[in-house]
Design a protein that fits this description.
Aminopeptidase, nine-stranded mixed beta sheet, globular
Chain lengths: 476, 476
């Protein structure tokens, strides 16, 4: 599959060959910093990771490399703006990683990365330090071999993507003056099943809630009180069950009102994806796959239709053996993945009111809004997307597929809505990367070929002097 | 209310008056031993408590006092058998207590008992060390003032009542030869709402299960997989919801088949109990009371009808904030209180099969049987029960009510089935005793008057030389 077209630049090829060992060592070094944004004990590691990246950016030859303080973890910024006739691309990645729990399911220490069977293994190998590192190494190679880049670059590397991006919107707003660009490349997605090169053209949005059901002030003896009071855990189960029909349809009134129906073309494109359901089921390891809604295929339900899932549930006695109580309270985290044009905040109100309306008598029910994010749909026909497809074909040797992701990147829609920039999601991770799970991996061929893809894309875009006009972006 | 009829025995009255302080100090001393049977770290405390009781029994003048080893915590046995013409009563109490969790809801240290507002406060004050202590002090008073007891007594004090009585059935079986008696008095129940003296005439049985729902081997990213797999927590909620109709009726096939319908007389008796629903609701602290089934009153649902309750539920992410996963697995503890003639083991099979039949596609569901206990119904017309009612009337000044308890004492039916002995449940705790909950209390007037009740009852029974024949008990 890998053709690594570097015919146009033998020096670049030679540089990549010559520096392979150092590149791997640098990748390992970055992964060894436990930059877990969600846990306050790792705050010093977040600063360490940000400084490590800034030092690399300085060494490579990027300019204005800076650890930008925020109310949370820092944003790393750098730019190179010496290609006056070429377009400007803003590259977004994140250097924070997911927590490592459940730690006992890791085969090795999460922050002691190593290479096995052609894969880098360790937390952040794929999501998203590996992809951030590819951008560093692509820029290094171009600057080292030519002394310049073919286009203007701005790097924005976030430290809070895995914990709701609380401070990035504010940082984007107040740094708007130095973020002028023609387009944004987000490298935080991956390839399609079977490790087929892909460009992601949509993300789902999010509504994340918590349902709190309260009965008595303390746990009650289930013998003395069983039959005379409502049980908060039973009540919670009923509420959750009422949220969806048996066929999976979400029953919250108005839930589908703003959903933009997929076009026949979209559905056809999805149906053409080379998807092996049996292989997918085996990888996921479930007894059966279950499409979320009637009338839609599995791939449609997983990407372009909204969902509703319990993320966690708890209440009462959860130890070994038996304890005969009626729990004082029971709770659930329930989140919805949203699609255009669903509005999380509007749906929260409908969700809360519906939950209250189906709550059984005898308990008090509260619903918290723990966060919302908008869905994003990008245009696969825009020139940057087309150039990315050409670069993937040139380096991986096959035409990429255009895929819809079921996931969410909270900040992605903000580049459009806040900075007015079109977004292209070009990511390189293998689908079985175990992102967010134990034993995260990145296939090193994806990494190595991917950084050549990036160089190829920069060269391609560098020839488009009129990109700004063609993209409809702003350089305010 | 308290008349403390001791006219028949001025010496007894004087003894009780003279030893009041020492009695309280001894009660405090017993409560200070943290005899939590469920937690293995307290195993040495269990032995300490058993030895403390045996030392007291020796000092008081009981005979054959023994810490009897079992595979679990010891049973304490003692007897006094020198009233050849009088009946023999076996007294059952337990010296183990419930765990103290949730510890943060206790106002004071659970094992640092003290007196406040006329109540003893501390773990075990009511359930069941306080009642065990009353029997010790009743025997002490009679032996101290008369040198003998008016009847034959056997004490069996268990150390595992709060953790399924795993070893008592075996101990009863192998000690059958020294347990010959005419009747059993169990002191592990309490008074009716409003602190009205009561004799408990039925206990519910139990079926305790755990439902385990498993999807993928690890938590899945809810964006990548939401809409393509069954969510184990949603599936568990649906299973739990399917267990009961919206009106509370249990939907497990055959669940009610063996239920003995309450007689019109029973229902009339229950309807005559002086029950203040508003006061009860305020004590329990729930927004509304909810009768378990249509067609039955609250008191009926709480005592003579079977129930189904979730005792605990857990799965997925339960920390602060949000984590977007589909849980790999979800679990619930679900127990049923049973009534005559429901059979827990038979119902377990029906329960398990029903759970499997309603389990949604795409998950694996297992159901564990964590224990069963039979319901018990006693005869309020038997002579010991009538004598207990007379003793309560004579000491507390009011006729006791006959009540059905919603709770279970796993071992209680075994005295009937294994030893062939009729059971009378005579307990003295106030209904707001917070048994199993934080801030457990015993009203000291119940304690003090209750031990006079016990003396009165022994005197009364001591006059019944033909009790054995009248009770239909065995003295094999």
């Amino acid at each position: 599959m890998i053709t690594t077209d570097t015919s146009a630049d033998a020096a670049l090829k030679a540089f990549f060959d010559r520096t392979a060992d150092a590149r791997l060592e640098s990748y390992l070094e970055l992964l060894r910093i436990p930059s877990v944004s969600a846990l306050s004990e790792h705050a010093p590691d977040m600063v360490r990771a940000a400084r490590w990246i800034v030092a690399e950016l300085d060494r490579i030859g990027l300019e204005h490399a800076e650890v930008c303080e925020t109310a949370g973890h820092p944003v790393v910024y750098a730019d190179w703006l010496h290609a006056p006739d070429a377009p400007t691309i803003l590259v977004y990645c994140h250097y924070d990683v997911q927590p490592v729990d459940p730690i006992d399911l890791w085969e090795t220490a999460p922050f002691d990365p190593f290479v096995r069977d052609g894969r880098m293994v360790g937390r952040g190998a794929a999501d998203d330090k590996g992809q951030l590192h590819m951008h560093l190494k692509a820029a290094e190679a171009l600057l080292a071999t030519r002394g310049k880049l073919p286009l203007n670059l701005r790097f924005v590397f976030e430290g809070e993507e895995e914990s709701t991006s609380a401070n990035l919107p504010g940082w984007l707003k107040s740094n708007r003056h130095r973020l002028a660009a023609d387009a944004v490349i987000i490298s935080d997605t991956g390839f399609f099943e079977g490790n087929i090169p892909a460009i992601t053209t949509s993300l789902r949005g999010m509504l994340y809630t918590q349902i709190d059901v309260v009965g008595a002030p303390v746990d009650l003896h289930s013998g003395s009180f069983g039959g005379t009071v409502q049980n908060p855990a039973n009540a919670l189960a009923r509420i959750i069950t009422e949220l969806k029909a048996a066929d999976g349809t979400v029953r919250v009134p108005g839930f589908y009102d703003d959903v933009v129906a997929p076009t026949a073309e979209e559905r056809y494109e999805i149906s053409c994806l080379p998807f092996d359901e049996a292989a997918y089921q085996e990888i996921v390891g479930v007894p059966a796959l279950v499409a979320g809604e009637p009338g839609y295929s599995l791939l449609e339900c997983g990407a372009i239709r909204p969902t509703l899932d319990v993320n966690g549930i708890w209440g009462g006695f959860t130890g070994e053996g038996s304890k005969t109580i009626i729990p004082a309270h029971a709770h659930a985290k329930v989140s919805c993945r949203l699609v255009p044009d669903q509005d999380g905040d509007k749906l929260y109100v409908a969700f809360r009111d519906y939950v209250r309306s189906v709550a059984p008598k005898g308990v008090t029910v509260e619903v918290q809004n723990l966060g919302t994010a908008k869905a994003l749909r990008t245009d696969p026909a825009n020139p940057v997307s087309k150039a990315a497809a050409r670069a993937l074909k040139a380096t991986f040797g096959v035409d990429p597929v255009f895929i819809r992701s079921g996931g969410s990147i909270p900040v992605a829609p903000l580049f459009e809505s806040m900075l007015g920039l079109p977004v292209v999601m070009l990511g390189f991770t293998n689908p079985d990367d175990n992102a967010h799970a134990p034993n995260e991996t990145m296939v090193l061929l994806n990494y190595e070929t991917g950084l050549r893809t990036i160089c190829r894309l920069w060269d391609d875009l560098g020839t488009m002097s009129s990109l700004e006009a063609r993209m409809g972006g702003t350089t305010a």
